[in-house]
Amino acid sequence: MWWRFAVLAVSLHVVVAGAVAAPGGACKKAEFEAVVDDAAAALRDLNLANKPRFQDKLRQLKDKRGWSHDQFLELAAPFVSDDAISVYDRKSEDLLTEISSLGQEGAEAKTPDCGLLLELRARMKLLVETQTAKWSYMFDKIEKELWR
Fold first, then answer.
1. Containing H/E element for 7?
2. pTM listed for this prediction
3. 38, CA 20 to 30 Å: which among 17, 27, 55, 95?
4. Nearest Cα to Cα of residue 117 among 126, 104, 129, 127
5. Is residue 6 predicted with pLDDT exceeding 80?
């Protein structure tokens, strides 16, 4: 499916960007800020690539089942909020907090810590992987329901 390709492209961008090391092992404060900005952009891109397609799937399900608007609000809720989705969301929130904190710490340090920068990039990669897994889970769940 096209959305999996879009997610893969964003993930590869994050991995490649994270793998680039500064010459001579030095890093700059601006790199810390850039990683935080990249995390926000990656999440935005994932949402832009997946949200409209997922909403379309929800509308297809509503039409297939003949749900009224009120029924749709009640019966579609499990496709956007369940225990597994809550786990993905909590993990993402924790990672966002860590990314923000590490980014600020790195940007404010007198001497940039390149090890901290690598850790920040690793957390960003994990965040993108977590959100990718969440979207995959949600699409798989609604696709199964559409086939029923």
1. helix 2-19
2. 0.77
3. 55
4. 104
5. no
87 lies in some domain: yes
Q: Which amino acid is at 142?
A: I
**For 87-110, what is each residue's pLDDT tens digit?**
999 999 999 899 888 878 887 888
Alpha carbon distance 143, 129 (integer Å):
21
| CA dihedral angle for residue 102, residue 11, residue 55, residue 94, rounded to 10 degrees | -20
Number of Cβ atoms within 10 Å of the Cβ of 23: 6
φ/ψ region of 25 (left if φ > 0, alpha if ψ in -120 to 50, else beta) reads left
Which residue's entry shows tokens 């089942």? 65
Residues in the chain: 148
Total domain count, the chain? 1
DSSP letter at 25 equals G
Task: Find, among 145, 136, 125, 132, the residue nearest to 39 by Cα.
Answer: 125
Residue 14: inside a domain: no
Which tens digit of pLDDT belongs to each residue from 44-62?
Answer: 999 999 999 999 999 999 9
What is the model's pLDDT at position 25?
Answer: 57
